[in-house]
Amino acid sequence: MTIQIYYKKNLIKKNIGNSIFFVDKNFNIDSLKKYFPSTEYSVLKDFVKLRDSNKKILIFNIKPKKKIVLISLKDKIKTLESENLGAKFFDLINNSKDNEFSLNSNIISSNLESIIGHFLHGVKLKSYVFEKYKSKKIKKNINIVVFGKNIPSIKDQIKFKAIEEGTFYTRDLVSEPGNILHPDEYAKRLNSLKKYGLKIKIYNEKLLKKLGMNTLLGVGQGSIRGSYLVTIEWNGNKNRSKPLAFVGKGVCFDTGGISLKPAKFMEDMTYDMAGSAVVVGLMKTLAIRKAKINAVGVVGLVENMPGGNAQRPGDIVKSYSGKTVEILNTDAEGRLVLADALTYTEEKFKPKFIVDLATLTGAIIVSLGSEYSGLFSNDDKLSKQLIKAGEFVGEKVWRMPLNDNYDKLINSKKADMQNINYVGGAGSTTAAQFLQRFILNKTPWAHLDIAGMAFSKYGGALNSGGATGYGVRLLNQLIEDNYE
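Structure (tokenized):
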């Protein structure tokens, strides 16, 4: 399935084929009269009178092989509402035989100047499917020709395309099975992003051992695959300002290690690398749209497997920060990967802030379901920026508590800390509290637990099920609103 969009400024005087028009909330079509022969316009008017008042999109067969799509815009429509309309339009035409549409951008009765761009952005986001491994693929192509004076600017066209490509790349990565996208292959794919102008550095096990990243290495030592830390730099601001830093958990498959997970639903653990995929998709987006900021993405890539060399419950490891960790449960592995990655990012790049993303805890799903990711932060300003950006693009976050009183739950008698809270309760908070211990220089930091948001069995407003790409649009909006 592919959606192709073509922009033409010249006005098509006569309406031909399947056509899309925007109308006001009352479906007033007086302004459309000049685009139709009088008989067709009369039929269209009769159809509108008989409409279902609850529907925002109407599709009429005005004659054989000619559909008219009317899309109702409410007063003061918001960006996200426009994108959701695009997604609904895609749902309506997805199973039809129609594949050619013209969209008249001249008929706009809304306060939102960029409604066309956001509408089509919603169409594209909803159209994504992952069918790489299907022998019979969907061959349908939909072409939309957009004409008139209200087409998006070239700058906006590039921005929408960049966000779509970054989001789809994230979805592709998360959708890959574990036998294909293991850490070795993942590192190779990241190296190929150099063609977008990104600076890529891959730290293999030999380099990681030399650096002392033992919490990250411990997670992957039971696997035949390698473990890696990969840095992805985008330098879009020539003044060498401090970069914005994004850190992602990349556990390509998580069996739980020696603390083995139950067999049921273990197949879903291919998406335990979704935090890293969001970071990668974001960096690709920034490079494609040539964002005027400096940013760095850092991802830890491992596979958590049981084996003769696997990490054991009770092991004590020394992190890159110098702090020691007692491993009480090898299935609490994501925080071990992030621990080394966070300290290294802070020390190496000295960023303005750090946002990390991880499918970290099942507890966050108990708390927030699949409506919000959990936000934990040491900085009120950064938290407010993330909340606002999330509301704007429909990738919502909910701030959860951090407090020194939780620290006693992860203090160890044998080491500086332990990797789980054995007392029970506050699973997501104690995990975030653990991560906070590896922010050593009071850098503004936010942790997003996206366990409930990275993958959807049922689909959402702007995705059709499977990997959602949650986080790419959120973080791009954070940057666009506050740092460009």
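The radius of gyration is 25 Å. The chain has 13 helices and 19 strands.
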